[in-house]
Design a protein that fits this description.
about 475 residues, alpha+beta, globular, five-stranded antiparallel β-sheet, Tachylectin-2, Chain A
Length: about 475
């Protein structure tokens, strides 16, 4: 499961590493054939062969008893005292593969093997970005195991994922899995050649003095929404509402098909909810999305997602809502997705989806703190605080309800942004973040939708984005 990469990660954080080899349990022939078939059909690269010289550079003879021993052999009976991953409550790798063959992520835990049974120290629910691929599923699980092991070594605590009812594990059929997955891949490729995939569309409604969805924990009836049609050239997502001097503006990602990247656009709405035409206000050589807005020191600031640039960029509004100028970055050298700020006492708190290189941003949340929205920012625990595909990735602004903070999060268990979780924030102290999922929202009634992944309110309106097989305007 990427042992060399795990060793390098531990050593980069100052830990001495020693590696001992043992024979892993044999894998069923059908799984070996499936993995080979996937790599052939989907052009997946095989894991590199173990390089003894590479390990010699990153491992050393153990000088004494280890502080932490990880057993990654996949055995059903790990070495006593060692920490090993649990998959749906079982130590064996076959339990992991059984879940993946059923197109779901296993409930994941890191546990110490004791004579009295496993002593769990961390839990996670990884996201499966490609549920039809066993190879990619194994990689996603391995990334989460690595995050848990690094948190254990740091002495950091991972928040437990939400305990919703879990799918009942069922045996997978590896041949059917491979054939169906390949058929889906071919069908998807043909569809992309002849039409646009289902895409995101922005909707808004007047609150008319009523509760927001964050307050009510349910959608209103279907009649209240107005939708911004996409075009043959682009679609719109990630709406944020802001009002200044009587002008109500909705900032959003506009995804341009011609360049395969997002830009930041804005349109205005009047008191009756009638809109203007969207206008591009920020464009970069790289992809932009999630235009988070905040007021500070008498100015309006935008902090859009720019994870592909490896920095969190900042822009100042020079003339609302159309003119914005760059003001550097508040954090560099990190790829943060959907970063969201909130002022809490004398601190600023930032939640953001983070990931190890090559891992998913759908399931991992990190918490950063600062005395200023411009930084310097420090990360709680030095790494993720939560691995939970059902309630990690941010989905919009925090809101205070009854004196307690609530935040929307993406529910990615069945796909990217397939639903929204409303989370009550129970602890916000230094190193003590925790949350409880108090509501889950499927797409709103009346929309031909397959997902909803942004929820924001402001200026007497509420806005969402919804994924569906929409028709577009020319």
């Amino acid at each position: 499961m990427g042992t060399l990469r795990l060793c390098e990660s531990f050593e980069s954080e100052g830990h001495a590493v020693a590696v001992a080899w043992s024979q892993a349990p044999p894998e069923p022939l059908s799984l070996t054939l499936l993995v080979s078939l996937e790599r052939l059909l989907y052009a997946r690269r095989a894991e590199p062969e173990v390089d003894g010289d590479a390990f010699a550079r990153h491992a050393r003879e153990q000088a004494g008893p280890a502080d932490i021993t990880l057993d990654l052999t996949g055995s059903a009976i790990p070495a006593e005292g060692a920490y090993a991953p649990l998959f749906d409550g079982a130590f064996a790798d076959v339990a992991r593969d059984n879940a993946l063959l059923s197109r779901r992520a296993p409930e994941l835990a890191l546990a110490r093997a004791t004579p009295d049974g496993p002593a769990i120290v961390a839990r996670a629910l990884p996201a499966l970005e490609r549920p039809a691929s066993l190879v990619e599923g194994r990689r996603a699980v391995a990334d989460s195991v690595q995050s848990m092991a690094l948190a254990l070594a740091r002495g950091a605590r991972l928040v437990e994922p939400a305990h919703d009812e879990s799918p009942t594990p069922s045996p997978g059929n590896s041949l059917a899995f491979a054939v169906e997955g390949f058929a889906q891949a071919v069908a998807a490729r043909i569809k992309r050649l002849v039409s646009h995939e289902p895409n995101w569309r922005i909707g808004w409604r007047s609150l008319a003095g009523g509760p927001t969805t964050m307050e009510a924990l349910r959608w209103p009836d279907a009649r209240g929404w107005t939708w911004l049609e996409d075009t043959a050239a682009s679609y719109y997502a990630d709406p944020f509402i802001f009002e200044r001097d009587g002008v109500i503006a909705v900032f959003c990602e506009e995804y341009l098909y011609r360049s395969s990247k997002g830009v930041i656009s804005v349109f205005t709405i009047d008191a009756q909810g009638r809109r203007s035409e969207p206008t591009i206000v920020v464009e970069r050589p790289h992809h932009l999305s999630y235009p988070f807005l905040f007021d500070h020191d008498g100015a309006l600031w935008m902090m859009p997602e720019s994870s592909s640039a490896g920095a969190l960029e900042l822009l100042r509004c020079d003339e609302f809502p159309l003119r914005w100028s760059p003001h550097g970055s508040v954090l560099t050298g990190r790829s943060l997705s959907d970063a969201t700020l909130a002022r809490h006492g004398d601190q600023w708190i930032m939640t953001a989806a983070t990931n190890a290189p090559g891992a998913s941003t759908w399931d991992t949340l990190s918490i950063f703190r600062s005395g200023s929205p411009f930084g310097p920012w420090r990360e709680d625990g030095g790494g993720p605080c939560l691995i939970d595909a059902s309630a990690a990735r941010p989905a919009g602004n925090w809101a205070k309800v009854g004196g307690a903070w609530r935040r929307p999060a993406q529910d990615c268990r069945t796909g990217y942004g397939q639903g929204t979780a409303i989370c009550r924030l129970d602890a916000l102290g230094e190193g003590a973040f925790s949350q409880t999922v108090i509501g889950r929202l499927a797409p709103p009634p009346g929309s031909p939708s397959r997902g909803v992944h942004t929820l924001n309110a402001g200026a007497g309106f509420e806005a969402i984005d919804s994924l569906g097989p929409w028709t577009h305007r020319q």
